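Q: Okay, next protein. This is Helix-turn-helix transcriptional regulator from Alkalihalophilus sp. As8PL. I've checked the sequence twice, so it should be correct. Can you predict the 3D structure?
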Amino acid sequence: MLIRQPMSYLSDKIGYTNQRGDSMRAERLLNIIFLLQNRDIVTTERLADELNVSRRTILRDMDALSLAGIPVYAQRGKHGGWTILESFKTNLSHLKPEEVHALIASPSDKLLKDLGINKGTIDVREKLLSSLPKSDTVKTRIFWERVYIDTGTWRESREDTTYLEIVQQAVLENRKLTIVYKKMNDQVSERTIEPLGLVAKSNKWYLIAKHEDQFRNYRVSRIVSATILDEVFKRPTNFHLINYWEKSKTDFISRLPEYDVEVEVRSTMIPRMTFTSKFIHSIDTKQSSKEEWTHVSLTFNDKQEAVEYILGFGNQIRVITPENLIKEILESAQAVIRLYESF
């Protein structure tokens, strides 16, 4: 007969046998159950290592679980260890495989730590796996072991999250927040806002808030100070954080300035040009009349970015249009020459 028990039942039973212990031991006993449900056999040494306790502690924990009616037992021999009856499961069978995979692909550790969410002694995904039917566990573990989502960048910048905890508290409690905010031009101002949500974009945190009847985005790292007020506000009934953020991104991109440039590039340089999108946000190539050259259309945010990018290729790239860009590149190149000639 298949035995499925809700987690509340397990907690109550373990708590009953652990009245003199503390919450850490109760959590450890549950973690042992999760690990045994996910693996066929686990040695005492392995459990002790994963849970950061001694072998003797694990043996006492096994006695406690057995007394609580949890069907754990030892298999002796060279490949022996602890196991649990296969029929003993908590139930998440109503979830579809793709839904479980979505839960397995959890956010980065850094973002969780920023929010004050620290992992326990075992990965939370072990607990998720322990609640699945045996037929789904193998496929889900394969997904876990072979898919990893890294939300960071190659060179992580250190974002100041000093006031993230205060901002998060204000968001969750619907309390007004007074912040001193530094804009990109270093202008500093104070304002009282109604914080509605937090969004992590790569490794950067943004606060979405209402100010003077308008929704605004604030980069958390630019908050110089933050004070939670006692005053509570009412959230707009028509506000949906994800929908707002996606529309905000689209609107932001549409407002970005564009600077179009036509160039000829030595064909061997094309892979290097398309390797990074640091400056370019649009690139289109077609064969030039000269066999060793390729005609390329580029789109930058502004002229300065175009100058810096093109100078980086030296004599491997030649500007066709606009003509005023050619003049500016010449002046920049001559300035570099004068700099080195002066030493």
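A: Here is a summary of the prediction. The chain is about 40% helix and 25% strand. The first strand starts at residue 3 and ends at 4.
Q: Noted. On to the next one.
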